[in-house]
Design a protein that fits this description.
Length: 346
Amino acid sequence: MTVANYSQLRTDKIRPLAELLPLDTPLSMMVDPSNVCNFKCVFCPTGDHDALARVQRPVGMMTLELFRKIVDDLAAFPQPLQVLHLYKDGEPLVNKQLEAMVACAKASGRVKRVELTTNGSLLTPQRAEGLIRAGLDGLRVSIYALDDAGYRDVAQTRTRFETIRHHVQELHRLKLALRPDFHIHVKTIDTGFTESQRAYFHGTFRPIADTVFIDSLVKWYDSEVRDISGMLKPELNLYGQKAQPRRVCAEPFMKLVVNFNGAVSVCCVDWSLGTVVGDVSREPLRDIWLGEPLRTMRLAQLRGCREDYEACRNCQYPKSLPAVANLDAEVGRLLAAYEPAAAAAG
């Protein structure tokens, strides 16, 4: 099973995740080069300084030394990672070592694909060429508005829409010149678009991207200072499909998330670092993947005790995941597989 992103999990050709569990190797891993961002999007906690202060989230960028340790740790897994995502809470291009990180991961032979998500504002032609030459396999550009006023309102930045469009156009030119199989995905979030705005988005980016998509906005943190209720469509998942309630979140069963400081959490939307299960700066990744804290969290999910973890208590993200990541029907079998006796026998 090759999982480059959740858009692949939407296809009928992918085996259900439940059939693959338990995994001896994570399907994917997310590593955050920087949890600092140059945007302050109204729906994102990274720009909500009150929320960050409330949970006392640390701020910083990952060192190249720590990243190399992470890549070295991958050698202990029986299988290579299907995909390494270089992003989480911040803007990865803020980190000047990003190209070196990509090159390190690709040279290791322990990662099949390396992908990156960026807001596009810092994606100059020079950075884009450096990333492609370093071996990056795919890049996703998040578009937050369709004009300058929208960027001021939604991302609270003076970055111009035309600047980002131009960066994507130059990225596409470099792709054609240097590596035709490099994948460019451009996405935006439906903040109440009209049909003409949807048509404008597709018309602008389809000629200079391999795939384009309009995501639904999913509420994944509680803000005391920002009202985003007008942007939410709670009946829809990330892909504009009807959202289905989930007992079990699939995230702890299929991926690891390494924050900028080495703290390992289980979910891409754990902005508060409330699901930390280890520290890769002091522990091997494989020990964390097979360790007691993560197994305990998986069992809590399967037993319907997600609320035991404050970071998971009111999270709406599980119901936004695609159908092939639904584990609810396999709870009994998975409980037996992850129970202490079964884990010890394995």
